[in-house]
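User: Run a structure prediction on this.
Assistant: Running it now.
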Amino acid sequence: MREVEQAARQTLREVRMAVASARQPTLQGELEGARQLLEAAGIAYTIEQTAEALPKPIDAVLAWTIREGVTNVIRH
């Protein structure tokens, strides 16, 4: 029974990691969302992008940063 419990817990961890990965925002997606939100709010902005692809962990952190920053700008 303990082996079944351990297998179930491991499977649950793996499913949670897969779901979390699927929900990770991308920098490109967040920049597009930022453009739309700022434009709709009448806020002037400049977006400078590089053509280089970033490692996924860095891309995700920057995406969350953009999302949080734009949310704060719109809110305040």
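Residues 25-76 form one domain.
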